[in-house]
Structure formats: C-alpha cells, structure tokens
Write a structure and sequence with these properties.
Elements lengths: L11 H4 L15 H10 L10 E7 L3 H9 L5 H4 L4 E8 L11 H18 L3 E5 L4 H8 L5 E10 L11 H4 L20
Antiparallel strand pairs: 1-2, 2-4, 3-4
Helix pairs in contact: 2-5
Bound molecules: flavin mononucleotide.
The site of flavin mononucleotide has 10 residues, from strand 3.
C-alpha cells in the first residue's frame, strides 16, 4: 500500500525511504559533494555546525574498513553501496562549553543529506547496526566527539537482486498517526 499523508506535504517526504538495493556502481561524479553541501546548510544551535561526516568510497581500502564495522544484518546489502559514511558530531563549542544540541543538530544535517540523495534519485540508508567503538578507532575520532550512525549511499539497484530476507522487505514502511507523537500543551495522559 503506497504511503498516504494525513495532511498536505511535499511529495518527497513520502517518496523518500531507506532502500537496501544498490546497483553496485560508483556514485555519480559530484554527488557526494552535493550531499555534504546539503548537510552543510542544516540549522544548528548558535550556528555551531557540530556535524562531522567521515566517508569512504566504494573500491577503496577505507570502504572495506567501514564495511567491516557493520553488523551482520547490514553487511550483505551494503557491499554494493557507492559510499559508506560515519556520522559524528563535536560535543563541545569553540569555547569548550558543552554543545547541548550537537546530536539534534547532526540529525538535521543527516536528514538534509538523505533528502538531497533522494532528490538526486539516490538511496541513503542510515544504520545504527555497527561497532561504535571500532568505528571510533577506524575514523580517528577526536576526544570531544560522538558517533551517531553510519549511512550507506548509492545508486538504486533491483529489488530482485537482493538476497532474502532483504528482498521481501524492500518496500516503504508506514508511520504512526500524528496524534501518537504531537500533543497540545501537555503530553496526553
Ligand atoms: C539512526 C538510524 C539507524 C538505523 N539503523 C538501521 C540499521 O542498522 N539497519 C537497517 O537496515 N536500517 C536501519 N535504519 C533504517 C530504519 O529502519 C528506517 O529509517 C525506518 O524503518 C523508517 O523507514 P524509512 O527510512 O524507509 O522511511 C536506521 C535508521 C536510522 C535513522
């Protein structure tokens, strides 16, 4: 059943979804630069811009090292991604004080990247299933930084080429109703 909006929204909010079928081709020239550019313009508290993206392009030693970080359920379909990214943020401001909204701001930046990927006809799939400690070593995470997620980005492939159980799940999912997460004045009892 196609996604249905309960109130008018721009169509790309519904048509974006986290596919797992990648074609195995490299990213189009300049695509990664544009995705990072989209992330660059995300809003952040005090314009602190705490997000950090560490990327690895397919076919490189770094891609293999990033792929090795992934949980078993993410490894098979990520093999054919054009790039793998680790999304992190700096947890302090320039004056050394805590950046209380670093995670929130970085979430906004990742969503900008994901939406731009979708608008280019690419797939961007966020992942929490990976070894965070090893990732910190692999990317050389500085001490006042935190890792949030990884992202697989690539050209879309054919659903039929995905192995099971991924093939059967390769379709957009649904959402709870707005009433489950938005409340006037106070949480509903
Ligand atoms: C932070 C984060 C972590 C996620 N972790 C994984 C993951 O490890 N493996 C996976 O297959 N999908 C993962 N997902 C994808 C979610 O399952 C997906 O976004 C959610 O089901 C909503 O579906 P949609 O993105 O297709 O709209 C993750 C998404 C986010 C934002």
């Amino acid at each position: 059943m196609p996604r249905q909006a309960a109130a008018p929204v721009a169509p790309f909010f519904l048509s974006r979804w986290s596919g797992r079928a990648f074609s195995g081709e490299p990213l189009p020239d300049g695509a990664l630069a544009s995705l990072l550019e989209a992330a660059r313009w995300a809003p952040s508290s005090g314009n602190n811009q705490p997000w950090r993206f560490v990327y690895a392009l397919s076919g490189t030693a770094a891609f293999k090292a990033f792929h090795d970080l992934l949980a078993p359920g993410n490894k098979p379909w990520c093999k054919k991604a054009g790039a793998l990214l680790v999304v992190a943020s700096r947890t302090t401001r320039d004056d050394g004080s805590p950046a209380g909204t670093h995670a929130f701001d970085t979430g906004a930046a990742w969503m900008s990247l994901a939406l731009q990927a979708h608008l280019f006809g690419l797939v961007a799939h966020g992942m929490g299933g990976f070894d965070y400690e090893k990732a910190a070593q692999v990317i050389g995470l500085p001490s006042d930084h935190a890792i949030h997620c990884m992202v697989a980005v690539g050209r879309p492939g054919r659903r039929e080429d995905l192995p099971e159980p991924y093939r059967g799940r390769e379709e957009p999912n649904d959402r709870r109703a707005v009433g489950a997460f938005a409340f006037e004045g106070r949480f509903a009892g």
